[in-house]
């Protein structure tokens, strides 16, 4: 268990050390008014407490990612721990923090608007399509996933269609209602359930002496599996995920002071990584090895693993509560996925969202498309989503790097992980069957060359932006105050 405990310890230390360093590099201005006050509209821009914002942020970014992803990643062995820890501290938490804080400095803008400002107007349209597609896929899949888990939990006594309808109804209400009416009130309870279930499983692993494997040179590359770059597309939300960049602006519009950003954005990514560590450890240790885990996954998917682990660690009642904690994850990301999609579309077409009718006319087409998508097999689409998800993370990291470069600050904290993942996303799509299906050695060469070209273009644009004194932070005196 040394690797497991060391990983948890490093994540906590990372929050108090590297998280503090990233905050210092960015340079918070606690006296500066935030969009929650300046743009208050009673719908999306509403000041909320740090604890409430933190819990909403954790549930927004989580989905099933810190559970299902690490369970699948457990097939790679203890190297999964390595990616979760390093990825969360130096990539995922930096990604979330910079996205959230730059959004706060720019009226709570979403990623397409930020990409337009810092990477060029063409990127606004590209990222807008990417973001809305990602959110529709996430929202749709997170209708069927919790519905299926609840259907199993109820032993099939309630028809799956009825459960799906109930989830859709909740999503519609959460998407249209002011954020403090449903999300702000329910998420603290949902969050408590999630954390209690994760801690319960973690304690159970320790108390029962589960044989959590240690990282070594021998198992670093188990059974000669192609760990790189596949592991970066298997474990996403627990380490680095572009989906988070679509969620952080929701909370950038409800944050009271910039000083709260480290706890809300950086801290909740670290919390998610700890949850991912627990479920990865459970997957590695409770099924008699990787072959046993693979059998359970083949028979019932990650949901079956969650069910068996929860009952084994916590008993029938505790296991049921733990499963409910996992059910909460997709629901609390599905609702904010649709909410983010509405906000991004409204921002793109400059449609004010204070009126209920304005929100409704954007939401109706979104849910209509989602209902159609629930009838489609998502196996292939979800593979594209994994690639698009990490591509979005790269864009967000380069937005952060551009911001810091123009500000003459340490842009390497964002550029290094962004460049690393850029190599991975290009290499992956060149090698994958859903992409160009090239041999891996050629894919690596193509990924390296493509990254070098894009990196050169980044520096050309960055030097031009710095020379032209690109305004980084919008002047709050010019922000429209909405009564």
From TrEMBL:
Coiled-coil region(s) at which residues?
none
Signal peptide, first to last residue = none
Give the GO biological process terms.
cellular response to starvation
Keyword Oxidoreductase tagged: no
Give the transmembrane region(s). Answer: 75-98, 126-152, 158-177, 189-212, 224-243, 264-291, 311-332, 360-378, 384-404, 411-430, 442-462
- Compartments in which it is found: Cell membrane
Q: Which residues form the CstA N-terminal domain?
A: 4-150, 163-294, 296-426
Mind naming one GO cellular-component term on file for this protein?
plasma membrane
Give the way it sits in the membrane.
Multi-pass membrane protein
Alphabetized, the UniProt keywords read: Cell membrane, Membrane, Transmembrane, Transmembrane helix
Q: Which family does it belong to?
A: Belongs to the peptide transporter carbon starvation (CstA) (TC 2.A.114) family.
Name the record gives this protein: Carbon starvation protein A
Gene of this entry: cstA
């Amino acid at each position: 268990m040394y690797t497991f405990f060391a990983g948890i310890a490093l994540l906590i230390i990372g929050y108090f050390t590297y998280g503090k360093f990233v905050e210092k590099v960015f340079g918070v201005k606690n006296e500066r008014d935030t969009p929650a006050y300046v743009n208050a509209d009673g719908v999306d821009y509403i000041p909320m407490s740090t604890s409430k914002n933190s819990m909403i942020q954790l549930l927004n970014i989580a989905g099933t990612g810190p559970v299902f992803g690490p369970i699948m990643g457990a097939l790679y062995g203890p190297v999964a721990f390595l990616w979760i820890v390093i990825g969360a501290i130096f990539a995922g938490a930096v990604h979330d923090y910079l996205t959230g804080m730059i959004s706060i400095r720019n009226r709570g803008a979403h990623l397409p608007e930020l990409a337009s400002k810092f990477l060029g107007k063409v990127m606004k349209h590209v990222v807008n399509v990417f973001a809305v597609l990602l959110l529709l896929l996430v929202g749709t899949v997170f209708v069927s996933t919790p519905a299926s888990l609840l259907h199993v939990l109820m032993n099939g006594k309630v028809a799956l269609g009825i459960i799906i309808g109930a989830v859709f109804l909740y999503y519609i209400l959460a998407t249209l209602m002011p954020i403090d009416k449903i999300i702000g009130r329910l998420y603290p309870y949902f969050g408590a359930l999630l954390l209690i279930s994760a801690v319960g499983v973690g304690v159970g692993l320790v108390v029962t002496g589960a044989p959590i494997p240690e990282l070594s040179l021998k198992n670093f590359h188990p059974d000669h599996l192609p760990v790189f770059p596949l592991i970066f597309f298997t474990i996403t939300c627990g380490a680095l995920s572009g989906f988070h960049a679509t969620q952080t602006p929701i909370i950038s519009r409800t944050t009271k002071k910039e000083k709260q950003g480290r706890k809300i954005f950086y801290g909740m990514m670290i919390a998610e990584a700890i949850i991912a560590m627990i479920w990865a450890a459970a997957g590695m240790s409770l099924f008699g090895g990787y072959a046993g885990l693979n059998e359970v996954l083949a028979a019932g998917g990650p949901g079956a693993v969650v069910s068996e682990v929860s009952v084994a660690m916590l008993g029938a009642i505790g296991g049921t509560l733990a499963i409910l904690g996992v059910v909460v994850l997709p629901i609390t990301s599905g609702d904010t996925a649709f909410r983010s999609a509405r906000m991004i579309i409204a921002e793109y077409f400059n449609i004010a969202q204070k009126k209920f009718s304005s929100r409704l006319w954007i939401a109706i087409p979104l849910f209509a498309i989602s209902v159609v998508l629930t009838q489609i097999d998502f196996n292939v689409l979800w593979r594209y989503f994994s690639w698009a998800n990490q591509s979005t993370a790269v864009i967000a990291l380069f937005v952060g790097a551009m911001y810091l470069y123009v500000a003459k600050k340490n842009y390497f904290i964002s550029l290094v992980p962004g460049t690393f993942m850029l190599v991975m996303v290009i290499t992956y799509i060149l090698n994958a069957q859903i992409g160009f299906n090239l041999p891996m050695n050629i894919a690596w060469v193509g990924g390296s060359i493509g990254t070098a070209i894009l990196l050169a273009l980044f520096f050309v644009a960055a030097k031009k932006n710095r020379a032209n004194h690109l305004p980084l932070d919008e002047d709050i005196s010019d922000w429209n105050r909405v009564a």
